[in-house]
Amino acid sequence: MRVSVCIPTFNAAKYLRECIESVLAQTYRDFELLISDDGSTDHTCEIAASIRDPRIRVCRLDRNMGMPYNFNNAVNLSRGTYIKLLCYDDLLDPTSLEKQVDLLDRRPEVVMVTSGLHYMDEAGRALRRVSYFSRETVASEVEIIAGTLVYGNVVGSPSAVLIRRESLLRAGPFSEEFPQVMDVEMWLRLAALGPVGYIPEPLCSYRLHPEAMTVTHRKVGRIRSDVVRITEMMLARVDTSPWARRVCWGRVAGSFLKQALFGLRHGYVRWPLEAIGQAVSIDPGFAGLGMFQLLFRPGLLGLHIREGRALEVRPGRTLSF
Fold first, then answer.
1. Is the CB of residue 288 less than 8 Å from the CB of residue 253?
2. Could you tell me the end-to-end alpha-carbon distance of the chain, in angstroms, rounded to an integer?
3. Is 51 exposed, middle or buried (0-12, 13-18, 19+ CB in 10 A)?
4. Cβ distance 2 to 30 under 8 Å?
5. For the purposes of burial, counting CB atoms within 10 Å of the CB of 319, is it exposed (0-12), middle (13-18) or buried (19 or more)?
6. CA max distance for the chain
7. No. of H helices and E strands in the chain?
8. Distance of CA 234 to the CA centre of its chain
9. pTM of this prediction exceeds 0.70
10. Do the bridges between strand 82-85 and strand 3-9 make them parallel or antiparallel, or are there none, so unpaired?
11. How many domains does the chain contain in total?
12. Beta strand 137-139 pairing with 162-164
């Protein structure tokens, strides 16, 4: 068994059939499809069982254990050399497994491979394409950290990633200490083990919809503490100048302000005001945010590797491959 496609589910009935069909339509055929259900109360398991294909296995937890536990359960039940954790509301391009397996086969030093992706709306209509590289690339841990500090999660959604099983087991389980950003925390642990492959072509579609976990977390202001901890973790792994650090925190402050506006628009008051206060505390005067918006976001300046694990501010975009 070369590939295990694992779909962790919870009340996934609305989108699961389409997700499964995108897996069964793969041009690469040597895979199993494991559905690990986290105690759904809708018809998720019935939908999964209704699709007749010998490669499909369904495991149902007796009660809801949370996303990190369910992801780890899926990994533990899987049997493939390579593992893809596919979110139940996302879709795979038909050539996703074929192209990602090919890169991992060609580059044995690569611990995982990711790709560009398409954003789509609730109905599956294309919104925009996101790709951080213009050509096939193998990026080091420091390059992944630099990109994440400036752009956010450059590795992307779990649906975009194919991981060597041995690397995932070495990295350890998905952490329950970072429930809101457990994927980013895992990508950083994996990147510390070896380089990350990147295919610029979008090989999955990420669905934006009101019930999505990221939207739910944003609405109630849950994600900020995890973002701060992840940022502190990344900055501890590299050597940066004071201004580079200020810009990195400025980007975080800007994301908190954006979340605060989102919360205010949805009728919340208390946590958006807390988010604004936190943004001010991590970037007093918003000098870092101003520098990020005016110089880093347009690509006039970026973080570049000087030597070893040192990052410095230089002209040109971060990760200009």
1. yes
2. 34
3. middle
4. yes
5. buried
6. 60
7. 12, 13
8. 16
9. yes
10. parallel
11. 2
12. unpaired
The rounded distance, in Å, linking the Cα atoms of 198 and 45 is 34
Whether 164 and 310 map to the same domain: the answer is: no
> Does 227 reside within a domain?
no
Domain-located, residue 228: no
φ, ψ of residue 24 to 5 degrees: the values are: -65, -20
| Residues 133/127, Cβ–Cβ less than 8 Å | no
Residue ranges making up the domain that contains 199:
3-213
Inter-residue long-range contacts of 213-222, CB under 8 Å, 24+ positions, other chains counted: 213/67, 217/180, 218/259, 218/262, 218/263, 219/262, 219/263, 219/266, 219/268, 220/268, 220/271, 221/259, 221/263, 221/268, 221/271, 221/272, 221/274, 221/275, 222/180
Residue showing tokens 């949805």: 266
Domain-embedded: residue 219:
no
pLDDT per residue as tens digits for the range 88-120? 999 999 999 999 999 999 999 999 999 999 999
Q: pLDDT by residue (tens digit) across 111-163?
A: 999 999 999 999 889 899 999 888 999 999 999 999 999 999 999 999 999 99
Half-sphere exposure at residue 116, Cβ-oriented, CA atoms within 13 angstroms? 15
How far does Cα 219 stand from its chain's mean position? 19
Beta strands 239-240 and 112-120 are unpaired
